[in-house]
Design a protein that fits this description.
about 300 residues, single chain, alpha/beta, about 35% helix, 11 helices, Rossmann fold, globular
Amino acid sequence: MDEILEISDEVTVLRDGEWVATEDTENLTTNKIISLMVGRKLTKRFPPKTNKPKDVMLEVKNLTGRYQPSIQDISFELREGEILGVAGLVGSKRTELLESIFGLASCSKGEIFLYGQPIYNDNPITAIENGFAFITEDRRAKGIFENLDVQLNTVIANIDNYVNFIALDDKKMKDDTLRMVDLLDIKTPSLRTLLKYLSGGNQQKVIIGRWLLTEPDILLMDEPTRGIDVGAKYEIYKLMIDLANDNKSIIFVSSEMPELLGVCDRILVMSNGKIAGIDETKNLTQEKIMELATKYL
């Protein structure tokens, strides 16, 4: 946003597809633009960190992708109620790490333990059964069914639970969708509105609601705030912290170092498919993260 103020003479702000204001850049600040975008004063960029990580929940040992270049000899632990950030440059294989844990990418070696017991996420169906959820980076290509309505997009990952003899239980689907709309404050004209007509932030909330209905213990979130406005970002940060307070664990990939530092308990830094470092967020800075991200280039 600072770059916009530096190179522009005036800025036009839109909210939910409607014009809000057009002002000269000399009269604007980043905070004022944010207030115009979200329709209210946003005094803090990140919610208070109230979650307290507990004992180790997930152990990943020596995970290596079958087809190179991919992840190499990845080992780390994830605690119950923890938000673990994953940082790295483009090409550092952050997405491949999540895909390997979720069974979307095959591995040549490595083990995964959940509460000390070995599990085998050979495919996404097994991963879901084991309590994992994966919110993909590419929302439009892999996350949403834009020509289906909000209700179907919300329940589709859990569709077997709505089969009633030979038909789908529309009332149960509606009730669960309304529960997610209320929980996540999804702005939609109706449950029958096609998802493509919702804003990017509300589309992302629908995807998150879809996975929450599977009742996961571990959420793998790949760039969940990409392409959405600052107000929706804040709501997703708050949701993540609320989930962590409910003893859910999150692995959170992001290209935005400020949000990793603002939301996560620890940050794992990837470099060329390897772990370059992992530390408590309080011990890290953007400069240190960048230094680690270039370690194996």
